[in-house]
Amino acid sequence: MRAPPLIGISAGSEPGTGLLSLPLYAISQTYVRATCDAGGLPLLLPPALDDGDVQRLLERLDGLLLSGGGDVAAEWYGGVDSPLIKKVDRERDRAELALARRALQTGKPVLAICRGIQVLNVAAGGTLYVDIPTQVPGALLHLPEAGQPLDASAHMVQLAPGSQVAAILGVESATVNSFHHQAAREVGVGLVVTARAPDGVVEGLERPDHPFCVGVQWHPEIEIGNQGGMGRLFQALVRAAGG
Ligand code: MN
Hints:
Blueprint: E1 6-10, E2 12-14, E3 24-26, H1 29-37, E4 41-45, H2 51-60, E5 63-66, H3 90-106, E6 110-113, H4 115-123, E7 128-129, H5 132-135, E8 155-159, H6 164-169, E9 173-176, E10 183-184, E11 192-196, E12 202-206, E13 213-216, H7 220-223, H8 231-240
Parallel strand pairs: 1-4, 1-5, 5-6, 6-13
Antiparallel strand pairs: 2-3, 7-10, 8-9, 8-11, 11-12, 12-13
Helix pairs in contact: 2-3, 3-4
Bound molecules: manganese (II) ion (MN).
């Protein structure tokens, strides 16, 4: 039996709790469970990584999962800082952008989720909407309605025919959850839009000439509970990573 592929999952920083209250590197358990359930061997990647660490880590990893989190700082894509940009973590930005660039260069399989798709776009030279409600006229609500569970559907996405995401999910459109106020604006070099919300907001990106480079703006790892098909995105990553 083949060894399960090693999937690096990028983690962020959280304030410490309890007696010591030292800051933590952390990520939602949902990403780890979804990776394990798909047959991957998960390895959490702290953001305390320099470029050499990133290179050495990616040589050993079979695949990369860029996870969700706070906003990417505008300086990375030549944008202007704004009070609308929230929960910036430059250490995490730096590490994840380096991981994404390296994965793009080397053909390492990468699945990018929520913040991850934004990191992927910026790594490829793209830009972001700093705040959808103030920058996209007629935008839908890309956050859950008050009182709704995390896996509740927030809006539709139309998937591009022939895209990997459409092939993986086996549908032309899907209802997805939504926890973001930023999104890809100018699309990075080599990436193509593979999913859009009805308001035009980019919900999916791929790089067609890469073995597996798939980004989604929604959270499939949370939706697995009520839309089992979303687990196929993780299975596809693991398969591309040699599983
Ligand atoms: Mn959305």
